[in-house]
Automatic annotation (TrEMBL):
CDD domains per UniProt: SR_ResInv
Ranges where the Resolvase/invertase-type recombinase catalytic domain occurs: 1-142
Domain of life: Bacteria
One GO process term, biological-process aspect: DNA integration
Keyword annotations: DNA integration, DNA recombination, DNA-binding
InterPro entries: Recombinase_CS, Resolv_N, Resolvase-like_N_sf, SSR_resolvase
Protein name per its UniProtKB record: Resolvase
């Protein structure tokens, strides 16, 4: 079995570009994807929420996991390394499309994997530090931060037309959530709040 795994952190990103990259690789190498797991959720969430637990249950000896880069699989270097080593132990092949040097000799691949995971974690820390420094600088310069008072901005806005259509057809909010968002890890309460704030219900 060949499984693709795609994850983006926010609704401002799109899973489609990663999916296309994986499908193009498979087409070029005459491979067939049996299952594509795609999710929109932060890496800080649990493995269960990120479908990592589901992924591990699906993979067995001789299977292949394809993802665009190793940072899609974990929140930090230790989680990533443990997952890859766990999959290697049961005979699962892992392919990272943007890190092809990980496909070679087993010892060499493990070393490169450790280096990549370390660099990915350090880059995340650096981005966080820069963000905090930028916010602090803006505060010191008297800039007001955060969402303007009494304004609305939600991750559900891009689907508002579809949500309205389903509500017009008397589809319950709970059912809309299951149809559109349950597999993406979004909460039912979030959708319910959105519908109330938009006066949709």
């Amino acid at each position: 079995m060949i499984i693709g795994y795609v994850r983006v952190s926010t609704n401002k990103q799109d899973t489609e570009s990663q999916e296309i990259e994986i499908y193009e690789y498979c087409n070029y190498n005459n491979l067939k994807i049996d299952k594509m797991l795609s999710i929109e959720i932060s890496s800080t969430k649990s493995q269960e929420q990120r479908k990592i637990c589901e992924l591990k249950n699906m993979l067995h000896n001789g299977d292949t996991l394809i993802t665009t880069e190793l940072s899609r699989l974990g929140r930090d270097m230790f989680e990533i390394l443990n997952l890859i080593l766990e999959l290697n132990k049961i005979g699962v092949k892992t392919i990272f499309l943007r890190q092809k040097e990980l496909y070679g000799d087993e010892k060499h691949s493990k070393l490169i994997l450790a280096i990549y995971a370390y660099l990915a974690e350090e880059e995340k820390k650096l981005i966080s530090q820069r963000t905090k420094a930028g916010i602090e600088k803006a505060r010191l310069n008297g800039k007001k931060l955060g969402r303007p008072y009494n304004t609305l901005n939600s991750q559900y806005d891009r689907d508002v037309t579809k949500i309205k259509e389903l509500l017009d057809k008397k589809v319950p909010v709970k059912s809309i959530w299951k149809i559109l968002y349950e597999e993406k890890g979004k909460s039912y309460n979030g959708l319910l709040w959105f519908c109330k704030k938009r006066n949709l219900i």
